[in-house]
Every structure is written in structure tokens, then in C-alpha cells.
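Usage example:
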Amino acid sequence: MTFLLPAFIFYLLFTAYPIIKTFYNSVHLIQPNASDEFVGLSYYFDILFDDRIFSNALVNTFIWATAAPIIDVALGLILATALYSKIPFARFFRLAWFTPVLISYVVVGVIWMWIYNYDWGVVNTLLRTVGLDAWTEVWLGNPSTALWSLILVDAWKWVGFHMVVCLAALHSLPSEVIEAAELDNCGWFDKLVYIKIPMLKTTLVNLLILAFIGKMKIFDLVWIMTKGGPLWSTETLATYTYKRAFQWDTFNLGYPSAIAVVSFGIVLVLVLSMSWLSRSRERLEY
Amino acid sequence: MLARNVIVRSLILIVLAGYTAFAAGPFVWVAIMSLRTTTEISDNPYGLPFPAHWWKYPEAWFNSNYEIYFLNSVLITTGAVLLLSVMGAMAAHCLARYKFRGNRLIFFLIFSTIILPPQITIIGIFQILVNYGLYDTRVGLMLVYVAMQMPLTVFILEGFFARLPQDLFDAARMDGYSDFEIFWKITLPIGLPAISTTVILNMIYIWNEFLFAVVLLVDDGKRTLPLGIQRFMGDNLDDTGMLATGLMIAVIPVIVAYVFFSERMIQGMTAGAVK
Amino acid sequence: MSVVKLEGISKRYPGTAEPAVDNISLTIDDGEFMVLLGPSGCGKSTTLRMIAGLESISGGTLSIDDTVVNRVPSKDRDIAMVFQSYALYPHMSVRDNLAFGLKRRRIARDEIARRVDTAAKTLGLSSFLDRKPYALSGGQRQRVALGRAIVRDPKVFLFDEPLSNLDAALRTHTRTELIKQYHQLKSTMIYVTHDQVEAMTMGTRICVMHGGRIVQVGKPLDVYRNPADTFVASFVGNPPMNLQPASLSGAGDAAALQVFNTRADLSAEQAARLSGLKGGSLTFGVRPEDIYLGLPATDAARFVAFKAQVIAVEPLGAETIILAQAADGEEVTARVRGTVSVHSGETVELFMDPEGFRFFDGETGKAI
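Running the assembly step on the lines above writes:
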């Protein structure tokens, strides 16, 4: 039992206690050099009904957290099927594609800022080379393209991860079932759609939920590349919380704490409902 | 039929090559830029590094404080990973081997913190560290990292430890080993693969961590690499050349480790995702 | 008509010196139940998979009904396969499992329904059609796997050790079911197993394989009675045939066999067969059931007697297995009807029936 103690103390001190403190903060006006004032649920009402920035951030985060997982997992699965058929240098490809996962968001952010650079970045240079000048954009500076530009960067970082997991899952499928499908007149596509994907359902759903959780937390990338701009078009729940806590005109930790609680509530509800919905009563025993 | 096969295979190779360019391209570009001066880059962003300005690396290291940032990152990461491995292993051992009321509850509690968005803890942690005088200290940040990665570490290790055959432990107990000896002499050595997996995982997350570092460190002398890069970016956004060199300094340790331990790393990072 | 012909078929895996399958030639006639029998690793499964198209053929020609199918993809060979692990689609109901292949082949819906219902009825699956595989027992899953093959109405059925995953009682029951199906369907069937009981009871012909090569092909009883070499002799039949080194003495009319420290006179025919041996070593074989405990009532004169000390007695009810040691130190197994009252340690007299003598070249193991 004492084995558990150190870890548990850490948990209490640095996880449980801060959470409780955040809940406490959310109903108080917290200022330095002044005692905390109880304000009841006023912040919550403000957030949910008055705060346009919050709703903006919520929508942005939500778009990111729903679109990105689907893109990431789908691409990951497709790439995994490509690697699964015995092609040469499979190991090399696998290693190369996994590399972005290891690189810090900060480094990734800077690199892609250069890639998106209007004058000499890769994207616009490529477009100009093929004559599509009209399509060049200030990718990170245009409110309508900024969010999706960031989502692309995020995908760049994470598709390799999903690919590796899907590849491992594909290899774990029983070969005889795939062979039976082969004899049942299934081509490459039919096998994928009718056999492999259904059998991989649990893994894929796990990946989607994991990705969803991860994207709801997104901060680093946005902070480095756009800081939530332009015009709040890339503002996320995390960046807004940070700004409100540490970069606002008025120093009040109560309001951002309330934002944090609301964010947490939303994530919790969504994750629980997704897990519950995808809980199938069948066991894919094989 | 053979022709169709060839076409399909070529298509696959094209897709693969294309994606590889997409995935590795940016990295290669930065590597090249790190060896060119900013003027060279402004003239031709995509030129090759002839001549290769190797002096930029020591220049960045010493003149732009990267040595300090690097050292900080190393200190914090090593300390945190050590604490995580020991305490995490102990906690996982306890949860996996001993049946007691609340075992599953505690496990669930620890595991569920993984879905917590960091916003919910960061404000509270900020306040706590300020109150205890740990704000703007490397030790404070390190402790926060330990708490942050503990759930995942315990989760992975518990899964592995639970699969160790109970007979081993029963035999040890009959031989008179104490609980601690059992942990030290049996669980740890046999659990080494799983532990090294968590070591790699934690190393990567902590080395690259940004949000908590940005909030909890202010003094330039204490900054970790991600912060260092951000600061450098703020001061010298136009100095593309030096910035690229700085990026490479931040990334090379991870890449080197990856080259040597790639299998282990991939295994570690995807552990538990396949069901 | 569904004739499968293998001519010089071989399979080589890159990196291994020995071929997994070495120059196999075999013709399976229309409506035959051919069993490929052999120990693990003998290449029988590989051969089956090459016929199915799941493994590429390294050398030789495979034809089905005079069409060379070496490069024809599996789905176009008009074959169906029952896998060892049944390979049912775990996420589909039994009905969907049966119908899947037909749907992929764009067969009309009512035709699919008809075939599925007929197969289900024949195999007793009608009440399970909506269940998923995890809710079925091993035997039921096996039947679904068979049903999936039946609805395809293929030219050839392939079976890859389908009974290995069943427990003993179920295995016997399912074996008879399969034989019934065979007689009903009257299709060509190729069946792989390592169990010689299955081979003996199910096959119209058996093909014994060893080390990637065919050792003997023939009707089960023929293979049993006249094994082509010592491997077949010891593999087919349980308990296995007694095989001992033996020596010849005398020549011509006076030729005799020395074995178990006793002398056995040889018939003229046997002597003639052995005449070519001259000085080479000889392996002698006799099946346990050809060794008797008491002198048989009729025709007693021809039996060869020898003494042996009983080591162990295994009473099985309908018969008894006696393990004994002959005077020359060789162990011998005898299989006698009913129960006997001998005990371990006792010295008994055993009688061999010369009709059961088999002779093999001591070096090559081939039958003489």
C-alpha cells in the first residue's frame, strides 16, 4: 500500500487539489492582494450566454476536434493499408512517417509558418510554379483559411501515429478470415470495406476518441502560429483560458477558471457519450 | 493481369513517395536552412547549403543561450522521468498485484485524468506553486510534469504488470521475500521493457512540453528549449537562418534517440491503442 | 466434372534451402475424396493452399478440368475452402456469413436466399441463422464454415484440418457428418489432416506425404496393408506397426528369418522377394493385430511363436494392448481381442501370422 503513496500524493497535490481549486475559483473573483469575493454562478452565465469570444473558441475547438480525428484516422488507415501490402522499404516508410509525431509543436509551428509564408513559403511557391497564382493566400492571416491551415499542420503531425497503430491492428487480424474473403470474390477494396474495417472497429473508435480528447486540448500549435488570431478565427478553449488568466487587462483568475470548468464539462459529456455509444455488446472474438 | 499488378504497385509507390515527401520534407528543409545564413535564404529559400555554415551551431549554442535552454530541458526531463519511473512503477505494482477495496476506483481516478484538458488544472497549479514559492522554478515545473504524466505511466505499467504470472510472486513470497524486495527484485527487472517504454514516452512529452512551461517559468535562465525557441522567435523572427539552427538543436536529440530506439519508441507511443 | 491434376508441383520459400513441397504429381478424380495425410511440416497444407491459390506455385502445373490455373486468382478457380480455424466473419451473422460470397458474386437475391436456406437446413443451422459466430459452439461454427463452402456450389471442396480444433467426441460426430455430406453432394473433395483415423475412415484414396514429397497414394486399406515404406508403415495404424531389424539365414528353400530370437520359415514367395537383398540390412514389420497371445484354433501350424516378457498391459475393454520385450531385447506391441489375464513381468508366448510379415530395405526403408 505504501507503494501507492508517493504517486497518490502527487495526484492529490498536483491534480486533485488544483481541480478543486479551479472549481472554487470559478465562483469567486480572484485578485492579487485582495481576498476572494464570492460571485456565485455569474461567470457561468456570462460565459454561456454573453461571451462571444467563448462561443467562437468553442466552435473552433469543436470543428477541430471533429474534423481532425476523422481526417487523421482515415488517412492513417489508408496509408497503413498501403504499407500492409508487401512493398519494399516498408520499414523505411514507417520510420519516416512517424517522425513528425516526435517533434515538438513549437518546432512544428515555426516550420509551418515558413511553409505558409506568403512570399517564399512552400505552398505558395508550388502554386505559383504551376500557374495557380490566384490561389495563393496569406494562409495564416486570412480568417477564413487560418483554422484549416492549422488543422492541416496538426494532421501532418499525427497521421503517422494513426498509421502505425492501424498497421499493427491490420497485422493482428487473423489471416485465415482475410483468405476466406479472398475466396469469396473480394478484391482489395471489398476486403477493406466489408472485412477489415468492421473487424478493426474497436481500434478505430479508440483512436477517434483519443484524437478527439487530444484536439480538445490543443494549445501549443495555435500559440506559436497564430495566437488565436486573426480575429479569433483560431481561438481555442485552451488559448482563450490562458489569455483570460494571464494576459487580460483585469487580473481575475475566477473567470478563466469558470471557462476551464465549462470546457471540462463539455469534454467529459462528449467523451462519455461517445464511449457509451460505441460500446458494442458483441465481442469480435477471433 | 500482370500489367494491372504493375500499375497498381506503381500507384502505391507514387502515393508512398508523395506522402514521404510531405512528411519528411519540412524537416529536411529546416535542416538545410540551418546551415545557411539568413541572407542566403532570402535570396533563394530552397537552395542547397553550399557552403555549409557549420559555425552557426556553436553560434546558436553559445550566443543565443541555447546551451542554457538545453541544459534546463535536460535537467527537468531527466529528473521528471526518474521520479515518474520509480513512483509510477511502485503505484502500478501496487494496483496490479494487491487486491483491496478501492483498487479499481483509484485506478479509474488516475486513468480518468488523462481526458482532463490542461486548462482545468493549470490555473490551480499556478496558484499552488505561487503559494509554495515554487513558481518560476525548475523544480516546480518538474514536479508538475511528474503529476501530469503519472496517469499514463501508471496505466501502461499496470497493464503490463498485471500480466505477469502470479506464480512468480507466490513463489517469492514463500521464499520469504518482503514486499519491497519483491518489487525491487522481481517486478522491476521483469518489467523493464514496459518501464523503458514509459521512459521514452515521458521523455518525448516532457522534452516537447510547452503550455505549462510557458505559464510557470518566467526567468530566461530557467527556460526550457520550447520556450527558448519561442523567445528567439519573438526577438528574431526575421533571422530565419539562426532560427532554423535553433530548431535543429531542439530536434536533433529526439531524432538521434529515435534512430537508435525507433522500434521501442513506436511501440511505446502506440501502446494500448490497439485493442 | 472436376478433376484436379498436379504435375510436378513444388514450392520454394526464399531463404530456405529445402523446398517445402518437392515435385508432387497427383491426379484427383471427379467425385473423389482425397486425403492428404502426413505429420506437421510435411507440406500437405502448403499443397492444399497452392491448389486454393493462397500460395503461389514455384514450379509445376496445376490444372482443374484440363485448364491450367497456376496464375488464376483464387476466387476464379471455382473452389471453396473450409479452414482449420473456420475463419468465419466475426462481425456478421450466420446468414450473412453464408450469403457473403454469393453477394460478392452478384448472384440474384432469391437465389442466394434459396441456397442459404437449403444449406442451413441440411446442416441443421436454421435456428442459428441470426446469431453471430461468438455465440456458437465449436461444432456449430464448423458447420457454418462447411455451409459457406456448400452454398458456393464449387467444383472442388478443400478442407484444411477442419476437425483439429474440436474435442474428441465432437470430432467423431462431425466426421460422420462430413462423410454424409460427401455422399450427398458427390463433389470432389481434397482433405488435409495429420490424423490417420480421419484419413482411413473418410478418404476414397489417401496420399501420404513426408518431407514435402508424396510417399504413397492408394485406397486406405491398401495403404494400410501394404505400406510403401517404413514411414507409412509406422504412421498409418495405431498402435504403429512393429518395425525391427532382422536378418536372413539360409537361402532358397531353406531361407528363414531371424527375429525376436526366433526363426521364422519363409514361404517361397517371400524368399523370392527377399533374394535381391543379399547382405544389405533388412527391416521387418508386423502389425500388432497380427500377433496373438494364444495359439489360434484354426490353421495353427503356420504361426510363428516366440517368447517375450510382458512390460505393460493396457486393457481397453474391447481389446488389450500388450507391450512386451522379446528375448533379443526388442520391444514388441501386440493387440489382442477382449481382456486377458497376463501381468507385467510374466513371460508369455506370442504367435505371429506370417501373412502379416512386411519387409523393408534396412537402409532406404522402402518396401520389398
